[in-house]
Structure formats: structure tokens, C-alpha cells
Amino acid sequence: MAEQPEGRVLFGVLDETSATESRVALTPDIVTRLRKAGVSCLIESGAGEKAFYTDADYEAAGATIASAQQILQQAHAIGFVDRPSEQVIEQLKPGTWVIGMLGSFTDEAYISNLEAHGLTAVAIERLPRQLSAAQSMDEMTSQNSVMGYKAVLEAANAYGSFLPMMTTAAGTIRPAKMLILGAGIAGLQAIGTAKRLGAVVTAYDVRPASKEEVESLGAKFLDLGLDFSKGQGEGGYARALTPEEQAAQQAAVDEKATQFDIIITTAKVPGRKPPVLLTKQGVQGLHRGAVIVDCAASELGGNVEGSTPGTQITDGGVTVIGAPYLASEVSTTASNLLSRNVADILTHFIKDGQLSIDMTDEIDQAMVVAGAKE
Ligand code: NAD
To answer: Which ranges carry the Alanine dehydrogenase/pyridine nucleotide transhydrogenase NAD(H)-binding domain (predicted)?
Structure first.
């Protein structure tokens, strides 16, 4: 490996690709951008291949191709699409910075482990997204937007008819009726994509403010006849509903859902298990051939009762796709955006050519979850 110039921050990125992950946390255009900011980049050989970037592209941009071992030992900071595994943590030298989606809201033991290894940890999920200085660092927005777009394509592929109305010599086909549950970043992008494909779109969100946004995109807002406005809107995010409110919401969604051909769910509450919006009974009420794409599906469950990552077809002929990996399936653009977000977080922490923490800064205060005491 080539010698790195003295006094520059060394930023490393590992190959995180797997059967479900095609993204990379650094793209060649960002290597060039970082170089100008005093950062030299190390990237594991082959890390960008699934996002269609070759080692030669990275080298041409000024990065150094390295082995995982070299990066773990030499980088001052490492950026992740996801977060370092226990095995990677074991190999990192104390003082190394890790930047990623660390799961700090739900996994305290993991964060304690980073601290115990003497690492400095920057949790992207804690970005104060409302600050204008944080906009270009917002990976949740960039990746959820990609996910919302891809969710509609996924649903369209699994659906046995057209999305738009189509008049043919053999008759007129009615457009698909699509319901989007959760109208945040992903939901709004899904509405836009579904409208462009000609579906008739209805959307619902628990935040009262979302009605106007849904309607401004030309979709209909679904009125459940329930008012959850009390307590909503802190920082612009949804609050978790009480068990009674949740039950009322589920009953109303289950009933309304029967009218739709395609349902896309994107509802989350920051740092918590996603709420169940559609129960098993609701899924049973859908017609044969209906398609559900649950973007919130995870091992913890999703917005649809019983959905897990992967595709299931119910006895009633409803396709339920648990799809938490959709951003990865638009790998080039998702990586470009993510790489820009991670690079801007990194450079935020570089002051006078050095990585450092300033606990009087709102972003530092919110995001540094380990190593702040040094
Ligand atoms: P998210 O991914 O956490 O959740 C997705 C959507 O699910 C949200 O709109 C949420 O209200 C909705 N939801 C949660 N529980 C629900 C329930 N029980 N029923 C129905 N819907 C439910 O959120 P997000 O997409 O990242 O963004 C949510 C809000 O944050 C939006 O208002 C967005 O404009 C705002 N936001 C602000 C900034 C910023 O200030 N820069 C950046 C990003 C997002």
C-alpha cells in the first residue's frame, strides 16, 4: 500500500456487501471531495463492485485500495453503511472513530462495547435532522427516499395487473388502487412514484401535518375518523400511540384496506419497534392478487402483523413482501447519497486538520455515543 501523506486524516471504508447489501459507504466522486478537505481515503478491494464502482475508479479518484486488515489498523476513522460487527470491533485499535447506523436507541450493550474498546462512535441515527447544518448529513432521508421509490417498483412487479388505466381493443383495464401507510420521506416518495406510474393513490399518516403534503402530491388522504393529534409534532415526528389508540387505528385500517389492490407501509417511530398498522385479519380481508410491501419489516416485526423480510403468499392469495433492503437495490444512487452523508459527517468533526469533538456543538452532542470523554 502507498505511504499516506503526513498530517492528513485517513478515512477507511470496508467491503460490507452481502446477499442483501449492495451499497458502499464511499463512492469515487466523494473521494475527490474528501481529498480537497484534507482527508485521504482507503477502500477495501471490491467494496464498490455491487454499486458498479471498480477499484480502478477509486484509484483514479485518488483513493488507495487496501485489505480489510490494513484499513482496520491504519484508518483514523471508518465509515459504515450499517455498523461494525463484533469481530471488526475486536480488531480496531483504540482511538479509531466509527461512523454508522449504530442502533444506539435500541442496543445499549453494543454501544457499551464500543466504549469498552476505546472507540469514538458517531451514531448517524442520532443526527439532529432539523438543523440546517445537518441536511447534507441526513442518511435517513436519503436512504428512505430511495426505499420509497423502489417499494412501488417492487409492488408493481408482484402485482398481476397494470398500475395505470389502460384502454385496449379487448377492453379497458382500471388503474390499480394503492394505499400508502406512513407519509414521511419514504411514503411521499412512494406517492410520487406511484402517481407517475398511473396508480390511484391514497395515503395515511398519524401526523396531522402530513395531510397537506399528501394532497400536494395529488394523492387522497385517508380519513380514519380518528384524532391522534394530541402530543404529535415534537420535532416533526410521530409519537408512539397508546395500546388503545393503536387498537382503534388497526381496526380502522383493516376495514379501509379491503378497498385497495396494493398497500405500501413505511411507518416508523424513531428508536422503537415499528407499529403494527395492518393485522392478520386485515391481510385476510384483501382480495386474491393484492400485494403488500412492508418497508418496516424486520426481525422485530413490521407494520404488517407477521411480516418478516422476504416474500410470503397467504392462503387467500395476498403477496406480503417484507422489504427492509430496498435502498440497497438501487445501489449506485443509494451509495452516492449515503457516501455524501457520511463524508459530510466526517468533515464536520475535522477541526484544524484533526478529528475532534466539541461538546458545545449541537451535532457533536447528539451524535457522539462513545469516546466523548477523551
Ligand atoms: P420515519 O421514517 O421515522 O417514519 C415514517 C412515517 O411513519 C412518518 O411520517 C410517521 O409520522 C409515520 N408513522 C409513525 N407511526 C405511525 C402510525 N402509527 N400510523 C401512521 N403513520 C405512522 O419518519 P421520516 O420519514 O424520516 O420523517 C418523518 C417527519 O420528519 C416528516 O415530517 C419529515 O418531513 C420530517 N423530517 C424533517 C427533516 C428535517 O427537519 N430536516 C428531515 C427529515 C424528516
So the answer is: 156-322
Same domain, yes or no: 267 and 308: yes
Taking only the tens place, the pLDDT of each residue in 111-166 is: 999 999 999 999 999 999 999 999 999 999 999 999 999 999 999 999 999 999 99
Residues sharing a CB contact under 8 Å with residue 319, sequence separation 6 or more, in sequence order? 158, 290, 291, 292, 311, 312, 313
CA of 241 to the centre of ligand 1 (A): 14
- In this structure, are 247 and 299 located in the same domain? yes
Domain boundary among 325, 343, 362: 325
For 31, what's the count of Cα atoms within 13 Å in the CB-facing half-sphere? 22
**240: in domain:** yes
What are the residues facing 64 on neighbouring strands?
42
Ligand 1 pocket residues where CB is under 6 Å = 129-130, 135, 138, 140-141, 144, 181-187, 205-207, 210, 236-238, 241, 249, 266-270, 275, 277
User: Ligand 1 pocket check: which of 125, 237, 254 to mutate, most ligand atoms within 8 Å of Cβ?
Assistant: 237
pLDDT tens-digit map of 289-298: 999 999 999 8
What is residue 237's DSSP assignment?
-
Instruction: Say how far apart CA 136 and CA 81 lie, in whole Å.
Output: 16
Query: What's this model's pTM, rounded to 2 decimal places?
Result: 0.94
Q: In terms of domains, do 203 and 320 share one?
A: yes
51, 5, 8: which is closest to 29 by C-alpha?
A: 51
pLDDT band at 233 (very low <50, low <70, confident <90, very high): low
